[in-house]
C-alpha cells in the first residue's frame, strides 16, 4: 500500500514541479497551492474511505477510482493553464488514490493465504519500489529530450497539441500528463474488464 502511494507521489513530483513552475513563470506560490491541493485531496479521500461502507467488490474500488484519477486529474493537469485548473486537477487526482489503495489491500488480504502474506507483500513492495528510479530517469529524459523540444517544433501534431495545452516552457510536460491521463484511463478500463481480474474479485 505504501509503495503504491510512493509511486503515485514520485510520478507527480517528478514532472509536476518543473511543469507548474515553468508554466507559471516560476511562481512558487502557485506551485505551493497546487501541492497543497494534492495533499488535501488525498486526506479527504482517506477520510471518505474510512467513513464509508466496506465494499464487496474491490475491483470497482481499484479500477474505477484509478480511471477517475487519470481522467479528471492528469488530463486537467495537462490541459490546465492557471492555478485554479491545476488546483482542481490536484484534488481530482489525489482524492481517488486512497480508494485504490484500500481496494488493493482488501483484494490482497482476501486472496493471499495468511501464512505467506509477509513474503508476498515484501516481494510486491520490492518490485514496485524498484521501478521508481526507472520512472524518475525516464520521465526526466522524455521531458527534456523528447516532449519539450517537440512542442516548440512546427510539426502538425505539435501545433494541434498547442491548441490544447498552450505553448512555451512546460508545454511538453503538459502533454506528458495528457498521455498518462489517456493511457492510464485506458489501462484502468481494460483492467476492470480483464477476465482474470474478474475471477479474483467476483462479479461486478
From TrEMBL:
InterPro entries listed in its UniProt record: MFS_trans_sf
SUPFAM superfamilies: MFS general substrate transporter
Gene3D superfamilies: MFS general substrate transporter like domains
Entry annotated with the keyword Transit peptide: no
TM region positions: 29-49, 61-79, 85-109, 130-152, 172-192
Record keywords, A-Z: Membrane, Transmembrane, Transmembrane helix
Origin superkingdom: Bacteria
Name of the protein in its database record: MFS transporter
Organism from which the protein derives: Clostridium boliviensis
Phylogenetic lineage: Bacteria, Bacillati, Bacillota, Clostridia, Eubacteriales
Amino acid at each position: 500500500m505504501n509503495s503504491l502511494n510512493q509511486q503515485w507521489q514520485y510520478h507527480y513530483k517528478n514532472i509536476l514541479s518543473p511543469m507548474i513552475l515553468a508554466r507559471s513563470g516560476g511562481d512558487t506560490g502557485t506551485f505551493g497551492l497546487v501541492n497543497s491541493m494534492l495533499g488535501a485531496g488525498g486526506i479527504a479521500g482517506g477520510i471518505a474511505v474510512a467513513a464509508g461502507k466496506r465494499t464487496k467488490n474491490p475491483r470497482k474500488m481499484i479500477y474505477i477510482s484509478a480511471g477517475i484519477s487519470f481522467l479528471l486529474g492528469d488530463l486537467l493537469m495537462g490541459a490546465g493553464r492557471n492555478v485554479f485548473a491545476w488546483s482542481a486537477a490536484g484534488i481530482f487526482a489525489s482524492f481517488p488514490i486512497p480508494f485504490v489503495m484500500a481496494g488493493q489491500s482488501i483484494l490482497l488480504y482476501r486472496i493471499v493465504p495468511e501464512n505467506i502474506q509477509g513474503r508476498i507483500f515484501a516481494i510486491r513492495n520490492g518490485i514496485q519500489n524498484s521501478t521508481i528510479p526507472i520512472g524518475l530517469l525516464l520521465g526526466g529524459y522524455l521531458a527534456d529530450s523528447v516532449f519539450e523540444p517537440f512542442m516548440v517544433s512546427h510539426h502538425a501534431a505539435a501545433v494541434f497539441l498547442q491548441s490544447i495545452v498552450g505553448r512555451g516552457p512546460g508545454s511538453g510536460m503538459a502533454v506528458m500528463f495528457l498521455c498518462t491521463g489517456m493511457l492510464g484511463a485506458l489501462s484502468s478500463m481494460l483492467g476492470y474488464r480483464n477476465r482474470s481480474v474478474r475471477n479474483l474479485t467476483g462479479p461486478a
